[in-house]
Design brief:
With 68 residues, the protein is an all-alpha fold. It has one helix at 26-52.
Length: 68
């Protein structure tokens, strides 16, 4: 007796709409994401340091008056 399985259609993987010269490997993508995370952390640290410093407040007077 012959085992007849139903015919199956193979499908191709979807093609990328991005040009091959702009496609990144997984390693490159992960390295880039790590770098972006490092930059964001650096910026957050700088912002926190600036927020911790007392602000220099300059008194604003009218043109004819002197600040003490």
């Amino acid at each position: 007796m012959k085992n007849e399985a139903p015919a199956q259609q193979l499908t191709l993987l979807p093609t990328s709409t991005v040009s091959a010269r702009f496609q990144l490997s997984r390693a490159t993508r992960e390295r880039g994401l790590r770098h972006v995370a490092e930059i964001r952390q650096l910026l957050a640290e700088r912002q926190a340091a600036q927020a911790a410093e007392p602000a220099d407040i300059v008194p604003i007077g009218h043109p004819g008056t002197r600040a003490a």
